[in-house]
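Lab notebook: predicted structure, single chain.

Context: the supervisor wants predicted structures on file for every construct in the current expression panel, including those that have not yet been purified. This is the next one on the list. No modifications to the sequence; it matches the entry in the shared construct table.
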Amino acid sequence: MLKPPNNPKIELKYHSVPEITLIPTEFSHIPHFFEFEKDPTAVHMAAFATLATDLSLFTATWQRRLQNTENLHRTIILNETVVGGIIAYEMHSQRHIGYWIDQAQWGKGIATEALKQFLLVEKTRPLTATCVADNTGSRRVLEKNGFVYDRSEIQPAPARNSDVEEAFFILQE
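Prediction complete. Output recorded below exactly as produced.
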C-alpha cells in the first residue's frame, strides 16, 4: 500500500463514497423536490427546467409521473433526509434518465453514487441522458457511470431565456 510522503506541506484529500440509499419515490417526497426546484441557481444549471413556483401544479405533474408505470422513480436519501431524485422514462422513443440533487449537496459525490445504484435497477440499454454542455458536474456524473458523449445540439433553455448547447450522452452496456 502506498503511503503519503512525509511532507507537511502536501495535503492529500481522500473522497469517500457517500452512504446514500435509493427508495421508491412516494407522494410525501414531492414537497422536497419542489423546494429543490425553487432554487434559481439549480434551475439555471439545469437550463431546461423551469423554476418551481406553484406547489399544486408541481404536485399534479409529479402525480402523473408516479402513475405512469413505464417510469422508474427513486428518491435519494442521505442520513434519513431526501436530497434528490432520479428517474428513467421514455423520451423520443428512447429510454432516458434524469436526476436532481439539492444544491446544498452538490460536489459530494451523491449524484455519481445515486446513478451508479440506479443503473443496477434500470437495466435498459442503450440508455440516454442530456445536460447543458456547461454543466461540468453533471457531465462528470454521467461519464463516471459509463455514459459516453454522443453529440451536441443547440436548444432553447427556458431557465436561461436563451439557446444553449445541449450535450447528449449514451450508455450502451
